[in-house]
């Protein structure tokens, strides 16, 4: 995806369009940060002691998409792709994906992430922002999930900026 393809969120849209557009903006930013790198570059950690890589970020965000838009919002009974480090339930904000297996590839991770993004869009399409889904001890609205996901992506796009600069000096998008 080129920089020209990154969708600028509209400045005067309704709430739903604004939330979905900002999430898509950050999704596109992540894709751009991963684009045009070798498999080695995608596996390069940012700085010791952090083990975070661009490939790990992509895997993690596929897991996050799956968790919030399929397991929580749509109540689909799906196992995590990547169990969280140390075990436990990925459904409580402890999504895995950070560890990159030796045989993992960018193509596989990108395809999985794109599939989860498509499923997320489909699961959101027929729901109102005030629609709720059960969450341990409470109900969570689609509005809250959108807001949470925008924050999640914004944080991780910041990580991706630093990692990409470390890998090949590229800054911006």
Overview of this protein structure:
With 173 residues, the protein is mainly alpha-helical. Helix content is 52%, strand content 5%. A two-stranded antiparallel sheet has the order 1-2. The chain is globular, with a radius of gyration of 16 Å. Mean pLDDT is 89; it is low at 89-93.
Descriptive labels:
173 residues, two-stranded antiparallel sheet, 52% helix, globular
Radius of gyration: 16 Å
Biggest beta sheet attributes:
2 strands, antiparallel
Helix fraction, binned, reads 40-55%
Task: Quote the beta fraction.
Answer: under 5%
* Unreliable runs: 89-93
Strand order of the largest sheet: 1-2
Mean pLDDT: 89
What is the strand tally?
Answer: 2
Q: Distance between the terminal alpha carbons, to the nearest Å?
A: 10 Å
Structural class: mainly alpha
Total count of helical runs of at least 4 residues: 5
> Which series of helices and strands comes N to C?
HHHHEEH
């Amino acid at each position: 995806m080129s920089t020209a393809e990154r969708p600028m969120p509209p400045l005067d849209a309704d709430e739903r369009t604004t939330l979905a557009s900002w999430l898509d903006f950050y999704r596109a930013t992540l894709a751009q940060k991963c684009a045009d790198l070798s498999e080695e570059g995608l596996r390069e950690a940012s700085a010791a002691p952090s083990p975070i890589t661009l490939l790990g970020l992509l895997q993690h965000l596929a897991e996050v998409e799956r968790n919030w838009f399929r397991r929580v919002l749509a109540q689909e009974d799906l196992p995590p792709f990547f169990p969280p480090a140390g075990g436990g339930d990925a459904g409580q904000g402890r999504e895995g994906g950070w560890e990159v297996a030796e045989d993992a590839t960018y193509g596989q991770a990108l395809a999985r992430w794109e599939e989860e993004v498509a499923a997320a869009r489909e699961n959101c399409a027929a729901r109102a922002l005030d629609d709720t889904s059960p969450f341990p001890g409470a109900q969570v609205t689609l509005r809250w999930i959108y807001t949470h996901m925008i924050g999640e992506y914004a944080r991780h796009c910041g990580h991706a900026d630093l990692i990409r600069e470390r890998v090949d000096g590229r800054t911006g998008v």
